[in-house]
Backbone:
């Protein structure tokens, strides 16, 4: 039984069919990629998996549960985490605060009465776990700066860290290398690898940077105009002629 | 210091504060208002050898218009006359401070405090659609005179309204049922806003109609202040055949109903308005006001030929305020001033607030020389008076015309208290 | 049946005015994403100009109409776009709402200043005379009502054709999605937006001169109420479809009349429903029409091309600034509180007490809007709930007002929690509208109930034993303010505050880490309502008695915009707002009473600059001066000694 199973997903926007009878699956601990040209429907698919959009047809089953119309925050509690293509950071908070609030949200033991008795601050345990994650990501020295002051690379790592604190079973990564230079991209790949090693989180990665895709995922789906045109082990898919045509727009 | 220890210390401090507050709250009660004519401090505030200073608290600005401020004109005009003959016991009467409550309850109390504690006036003249200051003034036992438009006038024995200090909003009185019969109808309607004072007034009207045999075709106390949809009411008036529509609203609501009646072609239905008896309103709404009745509790301005004191008042206003349009509150100010002066004279040379108040509270028939049905101040702080009289005025051809007057006076009187029929009684002599 | 038709015909003309106004609203919403809450004020402006021209300057009617509708109307629309709304086209919904609120509070103030507050009876008819009557479906309508119907239908049809079949119409529809993309296609997005505002202004002018003669006097309040019904009509049309908008307006108008005609009078239903019917329609539509709820903030795909928002004027972390701030506070606060007593004695102590009491109520806005970014337009009504609770407990059970403050806070918190429940799923503009609906219902239905508001004479709220002296009560007020301030700070530092900070940053991302937006907002709404209730009880005690008219909705709006001006994120901002609300009218009254009327315009100023200065214009100026001081200090240090 796959961790994530999406079957027959379709979504229309007005006259445009963004997704058409799409099915994919991700196993626990798996690293799967999702690529395709711009406008193929990758972000739309993510939004459907996350709960931002309701697909017109199809089902999403996660960890044995049909997600149906479940709201985003409940999906998060069941173990789906996400990063965003255009970073969605919490403005005016520091990186450490991002991770702390995610940890608090994971524990779900915050309460108003505790706040009023001034017991709302972070506990030693929370601080410890956050420190560990900051270390894993390698951003401990920039953790106390407001996130607006961080470089894009660091910002993406904060976003990743935030998602990781909730200990997701599946991490949806939406173009994490977008806006990063080569060095930052490599660093991110390294972090992803370490995360996979240490925490056995499953990853569904949308990416344009094909190098990163090759390094990070074992299986690949290719999307074009809302339809899956290929899927299978990474190397095999990359060599496929149809894929090359869709991406490069020419017969090979 | 470890973080955990700091956290615990801060929380216990907070907890102590919470417990402390609860203990204090449990132990304490509320302070009671004093009130009464205790001979407290301030008895001779505003009194010097040569003059007596009084203040005024009126609604000069605010949503409900400018009808209240002219109280001060009536007061000043009467003071001018008294001062022209040397004042009272050698002291001239001066209206030194006029404060605006801006029709704002917070300001009402604040300005009253200013008058009493800062300006230190001897007495206060007040007129406003809102009067929380009344509670304060009663507490401080300050002689207060003004327009009895608010419930707070019965807060204490030092407050004197222009027609008594008591308001029986929901009691049954024969006037409106009698008016209905005069018009020739047996069905009436009453319309009011959701606002408490308006709604209560309408309940009183309904009680009156029920007690004295007039059918109530429509009683609406759910009109929103500022509403413009009265067609539902108009339709019900039409269907019930009501011939008299009495309202408890301000001119904006009254004119709306009048307009609706005209629009529906109900030209035989007459209205009775609780306010609007002044030339300014008449000039603004002449055609809508045609045929409207006003039940006044004082001599109409148009009846100066029947009551000499009215002529006296009109001459004084023309002399001192020739450019101000006549308003009822001017007359009430004049009447209030007369009561004040009567009290001053009775109190003698060694005047104190208590003496003035006690003197007034002994009077059983104050009518300001015939301008109003006599007030019995031994009773009318807390109850209705011995006379239930109205002077009726109707708008005819764009002018106010007194109607239904009997016995050489503009008034028509009913049995009081507890009338059982709408039969009139002979109008007693108001001195 | 004929009875029904009679009511329907009455409702038809009102309905048409609502539809007309709604088309104006829809037009600007579709092109700039703004719910133009100033529309009523625009309509009033044109009506006032028409009134002045015809009745006071005795112009010819058509000349007056030309001026009011064709010149002034579009001019006002143009000005609003150029000066305000153009700059916030890409701002979040809430910012747009706040700007519109500021106009709603401020414009009547400015209009009263220019046009005077005198009664303006018998507004002149616009097109056809209201003294001529026509038979219509078995009923009578007058000329004015007929002109309303004709004009509304004509405008809706014309506008529909314009939007669908002209290129500029298409451009208007594109602009709201992404002005940048429209510009990339070679179209001047600003000009398109301005055209929409000018047209909307014309429609506002028409609505104004047509609505005015249906009342017997020209009063700005009537135009605010027009706005609500227009919003309901616009919502009915899903903010897209003009024919449905027309239908929606008619439905609201006819529905209102039929309700008035058929509901048993003076019943709870009548009292509750009649005044708030348009609101209930609006809130109902928002709750149940799914199409509307999907309208999340449209994010411009090209928004990343815009330069980032300028950094806050001074960094918080600078210890010197904190010290300067502390010193200023330690010196300044006693100075403000005590020095003027030399001149004004007791009166100033009263003013200060009121200021402290209002600050407590303002704190409820800090707690809610400052922490969660939600707008509530009923805070003063919640204060009223607290006040009446304390008063009734004191009057009936002789319970100390100190308990009254606590219980009043609890009751207000419960009421706040109830209100927020249905509206929380909607968020943003819709929560604001739901709270406004509550405020109106409180004014017209809840507070006038005898057992709540005490009817005529209101409810007495004595001072607690031991605190009846002026100084003692002042001290008590300060303690209550301090406690409430402490609560706000603790909530901000704690879990709820952290969650809310995250939600403020990005609601979607916060949800992805498991934060339930509804739960956090609900908690803070209840806390905020509780603080308002405590402040209200304290306020009632300070003025000794309260009555049902005192807590009207307009003051809730005014408080909101005032706190936005002084700074909604800090306790200090709330205190500034409260003191300002007590002191400024006092000073104006004493020294410049002609300008009394402008007081609300002054308060509203900050909400107009909210987009650029979300920290509050006063806070911004303060930081700027602090930054200037820092620079001066730096220069002194660098200068050679």
Residues:
């Amino acid at each position: 039984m796959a961790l994530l199973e999406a079957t027959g997903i379709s979504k229309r926007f007005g006259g445009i069919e963004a997704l058409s009878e799409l099915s994919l699956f991700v196993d626990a601990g798996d690293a799967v990629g999702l690529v395709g040209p711009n406008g193929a429907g990758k972000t739309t698919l993510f939004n459907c998996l996350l709960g931002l959009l309701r697909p017109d047809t199809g089902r999403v089953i996660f960890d044995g549960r049909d997600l149906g119309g479940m709201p985003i925050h409940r999906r998060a509690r069941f173990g789906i985490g996400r990063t965003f293509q255009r970073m969605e950071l919490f403005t005016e908070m520091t990186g450490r605060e991002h991770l702390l609030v995610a940890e608090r949200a994971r524990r779900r033991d915050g309460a108003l009465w505790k706040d009023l008795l001034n017991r709302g601050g972070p506990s030693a345990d929370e601080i410890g776990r956050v420190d560990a994650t900051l270390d894993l990501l390698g951003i401990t020295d920039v953790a106390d700066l407001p996130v607006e002051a961080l470089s894009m690379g660091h910002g993406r790592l904060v976003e990743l860290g935030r998602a990781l604190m909730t200990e997701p079973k599946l991490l949806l990564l939406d173009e994490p290398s977008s806006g990063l230079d080569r060095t930052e991209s490599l660093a991110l790949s390294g972090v992803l690898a370490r995360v996979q090693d240490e925490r056995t989180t499953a990853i569904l990665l949308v990416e344009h940077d094909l190098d990163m895709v090759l390094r990070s995922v074992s299986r690949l789906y290719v999307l074009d105009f809302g339809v899956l045109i290929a899927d299978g082990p990474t190397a095999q898919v990359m060599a496929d002629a149809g894929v090359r045509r869709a991406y490069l727009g020419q017969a090979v | 210091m470890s973080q955990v220890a700091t956290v615990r210390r801060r929380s216990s401090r907070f907890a102590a504060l919470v417990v402390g507050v609860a203990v204090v709250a449990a132990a304490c009660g509320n302070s009671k208002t004093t009130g009464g004519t205790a001979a407290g401090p301030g008895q001779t505030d505003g009194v010097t050898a040569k003059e007596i200073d009084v203040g005024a608290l009126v609604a000069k600005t605010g949503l409900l218009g400018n009808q209240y401020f002219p109280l001060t004109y009536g007061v000043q005009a009467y003071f001018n006359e008294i001062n022209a003959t040397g004042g009272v016991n050698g002291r001239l009467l001066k209206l030194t401070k006029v404060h605006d409550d801006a029709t704002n309850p917070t300001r009402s109390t604040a300005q009253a405090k200013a008058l009493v504690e800062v300006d230190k006036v001897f007495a206060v003249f007040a007129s406003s659609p809102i009067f929380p200051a009344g509670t304060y003034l009663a507490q401080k036992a300050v002689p207060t005179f003004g327009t009895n438009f608010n419930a707070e006038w019965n807060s204490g024995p030092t407050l004197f309204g222009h027609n008594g200090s008591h308001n029986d909003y929901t009691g049954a009185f024969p006037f409106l049922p009698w008016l209905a019969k005069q018009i020739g109808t047996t069905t009436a309607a009453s319309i009011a806003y959701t606002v408490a004072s308006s709604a209560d007034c309408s309940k009183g009207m309904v009680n009156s109609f029920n007690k004295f045999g007039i059918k109530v075709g429509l009683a609406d106390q759910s009109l929103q202040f500022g509403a413009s949809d009265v067609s539902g009411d108009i339709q019900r008036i039409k269907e019930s055949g009501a011939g008299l529509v009495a309202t408890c609203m301000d001119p904006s609501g009254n004119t709306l109903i009048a307009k609706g009646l005209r629009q529906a072609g109900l030209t035989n239905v007459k209205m009775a308005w609780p306010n609007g008896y002044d030339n300014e309103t008449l000039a603004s709404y002449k055609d809508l006001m045609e045929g409207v009745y006003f039940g006044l509790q004082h001599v109409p301005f148009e009846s100066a030929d029947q009551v000499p004191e009215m002529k006296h008042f009109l001459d004084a206003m023309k002399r001192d305020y020739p450019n101000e349009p006549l308003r009822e509150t001017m007359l009430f100010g004049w009447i209030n001033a007369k009561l004040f002066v009567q009290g001053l004279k009775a109190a003698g040379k060694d005047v104190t607030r208590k003496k003035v108040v006690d003197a007034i509270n002994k009077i059983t028939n104050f009518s300001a020389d015939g301008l109003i049905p006599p007030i019995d101040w031994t009773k009318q702080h807390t109850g209705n008076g011995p006379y239930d009289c109205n002077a009726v005025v109707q708008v005819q051809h764009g002018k106010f015309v007194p109607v239904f007057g009997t016995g050489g006076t503009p008034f028509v009187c009913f049995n009081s208290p507890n009338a059982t029929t709408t039969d009139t009684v002979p109008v007693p002599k108001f001195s | 049946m004929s009875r029904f038709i009679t009511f329907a015909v009455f409702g038809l003309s009102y309905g048409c005015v609502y539809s007309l106004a709604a088309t104006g609203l829809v037009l600007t919403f579709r092109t700039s994403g703004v719910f133009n809450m100033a529309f009523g004020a625009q309509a009033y402006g044109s009506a006032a100009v028409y009134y002045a021209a015809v009745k006071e300057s005795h112009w010819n009617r058509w000349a007056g109409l030309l001026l009011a509708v064709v010149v002034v109307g579009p001019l006002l629309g143009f000005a609003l776009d150029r000066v305000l709304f153009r700059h916030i086209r890409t701002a979040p919904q809430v910012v747009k709402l706040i700007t519109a609120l500021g106009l709603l509070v401020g414009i009547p103030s400015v209009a009263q200043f220019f046009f005077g507050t005198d009664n303006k009876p018998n507004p002149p008819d616009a097109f056809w005379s209201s003294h001529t009557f026509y038979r219509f479906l078995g009923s009578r309508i007058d000329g004015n009502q007929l002109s309303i119907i004709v004009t509304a239908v004509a405008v809706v049809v014309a506008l529909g054709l314009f939007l669908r079949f002209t290129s500029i119409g298409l451009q208007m529809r594109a602009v709201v999605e992404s002005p940048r993309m429209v510009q990339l296609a070679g179209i001047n997005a600003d000009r398109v937006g301005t055209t929409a505002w000018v047209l909307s202004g014309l429609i506002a002018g028409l609505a104004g001169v047509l609505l005015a003669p249906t009342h017997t006097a020209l009063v700005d309040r009537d135009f605010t109420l027009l706005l609500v019904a227009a919003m309901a009509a616009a919502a009915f049309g899903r903010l897209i479809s003009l024919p449905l908008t027309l239908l929606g307006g008619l439905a609201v108008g006819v529905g209102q009349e039929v309700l008035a005609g058929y509901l048993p009078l003076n019943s709870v239903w009548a009292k509750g429903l009649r005044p708030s019917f348009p609101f209930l329609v609006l809130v109902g539509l928002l709750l149940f029409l799914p199409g509307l709820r999907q309208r999340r903030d449209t994010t411009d795909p090209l928004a990343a091309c815009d330069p980032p928002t300028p950094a806050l004027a001074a960094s918080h972390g600078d210890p010197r600034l904190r010290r300067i701030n502390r010193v200023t506070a330690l010196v300044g606060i006693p100075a403000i509180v005590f020095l003027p007593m030399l001149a004004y004695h007791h009166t100033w102590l009263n003013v200060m007490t009121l200021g402290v009491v209002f600050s407590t109520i303002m704190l409820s806005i800090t707690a809610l809007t400052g922490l969660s970014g939600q707008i509530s337009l009923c805070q003063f009504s919640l204060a009223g709930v607290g006040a009446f609770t304390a008063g009734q407990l004191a009057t009936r059970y002789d319970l100390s007002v100190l308990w009254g403050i606590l219980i009043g806070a609890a009751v207000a918190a419960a009421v706040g929690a109830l209100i927020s429940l249905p509206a929380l799923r909607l968020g943003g503009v819709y929560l604001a509208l739901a709270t406004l609906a509550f405020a109106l219902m409180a004014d017209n239905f809840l507070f006038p109930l005898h057992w709540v508001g005490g009817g005529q004479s209101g409810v007495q709220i004595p001072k607690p034993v031991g605190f009846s002296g002026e100084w003692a009560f002042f001290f008590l007020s300060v303690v209550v303010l301090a406690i409430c301030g402490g609560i706000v700070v603790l909530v901000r530092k704690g879990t709820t505050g952290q969650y809310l900070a995250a939600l403020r940053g990005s609601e979607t991302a916060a949800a992805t880490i498991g934060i339930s937006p509804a739960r956090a907002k609900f908690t803070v709404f209840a806390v905020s309502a509780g603080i308002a209730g405590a402040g209200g009880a304290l306020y009632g005690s300070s003025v000794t008695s309260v009555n049902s008219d005192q807590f009207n909705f307009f003051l809730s709006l005014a408080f909101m915009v005032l706190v936005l001006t002084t700074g909604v994120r800090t306790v200090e901002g709330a205190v500034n707002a409260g003191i300002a609300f007590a002191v400024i009218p006092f000073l104006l009254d004493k020294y410049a009473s002609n300008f009394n009327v402008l007081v609300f315009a002054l308060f509203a100023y900050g909400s107009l600059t909210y987009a650029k200065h979300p920290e509050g214009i006063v806070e911004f100026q303060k930081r700027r001066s602090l930054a200037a001081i820092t620079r001066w200090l730096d220069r002194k240090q660098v200068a050679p000694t």
